[in-house]
Each structure stands twice: as C-alpha cells, then as structure tokens.
Amino acid sequence: xxxxxxxxxxxxxxxMLLMACTRHxxxxxxxxxxxxxxxxxxxxxxxxxxxxxxxxxINDSLTEEEITWQIHDFKxxxxxxxxxxxxxxxxxxxxxxxxWKIMEAAVIAAQDSGLQAMxxxxxxxxxxYAGGIVPRMNETYRAKCLARLDRATPLPIGSEILAQxxxxxxxxxxxxxxYDIFNGTxxxxxxNPEVVQKFIEVSYQPYVDKYGGMIENYTFAIFSDxxxxxxxxxxxxxxxxxxxxYSPWLEKKFEQLYGYSLRTRLPLLFEEKCNWRxxxxxxx
Length: 284
Hints:
With 284 residues, the chain is an alpha/beta fold. It is 33% helix and 17% strand. It contains nine helices and eight strands. Strand 1 (55-60), helix 3 (64-77) and strand 2 form a beta-alpha-beta unit. Helix 3 (64-77) runs parallel beside helix 4 (97-113). It is elongated.
C-alpha cells in the first residue's frame, strides 16, 4: 500500500475544510465581474484583465516619448497593464509638473495599446509620507514612539517626557529628519487622522482629478504599499530599555475606549506586575 506523507494529508484536509467553509448550500452566489467559465480561446488569448500587471519602476529622467515606447513594448510582451511606481534613482521631481506629464503620457499610451494603467501612491515605500511632502507640512505629522530610558540617559532631540519614576524616564519621541529612504525627511504618524487626510489629498486626489475621467473601460486603481505604525524610527544613538508604537492620538483614543489614562500605566507596558495583562491588551 502506498504511504501518504502526513503533510499531504494535512494539506488535503485543509482544502476540504476550505471548500466546506467557502460555500453553504443555501448561500446566495456572489456576483463576479468575471466569467464563471473561460473558453479555450480566452485562455489562449486572454483579455487585459487576466494578464500580468507588473510594478513599472519609474526612475531616471523619463521623457514622454520614452515612457510611451516602453508601454507599447509592454503590450508586445503580453502584459495586461502596469502600476506606475516611482523607484530609487528617480530624477524627475515626484508629483512635480514633469511627473504629471509623464503620468498622462502613460495613461494615453495605455489606452492606445489596450492596456490598463494603474497608479502607485508613494515615492518608493512605505506609503504615507508622499515623498517627503507630508512630514514637511507640520512637525506634529512626523512618526512618533514611546521609549523607556534609564533615568541617567540624556534625552535625544525630539523628546517629550511623559512620566518618570526613580529609575526610568518614559518619553514621547518625534522622529527627526535625515532618512535617505524618505528623501531626507522621515516617516509619519499614521495614528493621526490629519496625517492620513493630508496624504490622501497629496497622493490620491490629484490622480483622480487628472485621470479619473480618462479611465472609463476598467476600474481606476491605486496601489498602497506597507503603511505602518512602528517604533523603528527611534534615535539610533540613544540607548533604551524598550520602544513601542505611540502617539498623542493613541493616548486620546485609549482613554475614550477604556476610561483611564495610558500615561499613568506606562511601566506596565514594559514590566509584568499589577494588571499588566489588561493594560497591554487594551494597548494592543
């Protein structure tokens, strides 16, 4: 008798469970924008929507003629569309006048080629800082974190003391400019709804305003890449005893939800004592 590997059994069981959970006999079928079955002809020669959509890495200093030629070449290569993605090495000013000329040339070339032009919401990644535009708007828009320092440790620039005890200082740290990946600026505080709104206004609305009316035969789409809330942007020269995601907006929302001040419980985010489990559950 042929022996079946345990992994194969596990995988088979997973597939059966997935099939059982996916569709209930009385469930109304979900409406799909695509065909339920594909003909052989469609499989051999699929429409654009069924083809690959690469990240189109826009860098160097591209002319309208160059990007038009490249997009027509995408058609010859068998792609269905592309995401216009600013990458390292870009010389053209991101979201500047020449950038929009290139974007419009790309949309027109896509239409001429029967491809689907999609957009990307950031200069490189992670999404949220709009190539440095958003953190330059207001210092309060910069990424922040909570850091626990030894009481004797000098405070880095950008620190605000939240609490102290006999041995530790707890600070709210605002990230400083100087990150190459963020074009010399820094990441932003995505706890702050004002930051998110500004990012949408800068990195989404112009694409909609300029090209929303030009794109009619398929769904207008913008790709977002790795927006995050993270404590990784703390000052690298300052020794610490732990860093966590934090923001005045988090503090405000925390008290609204749970009825007490997180600032008075900061040691419990680092030490296992009193009701630390409850506080950390509320925090996370």
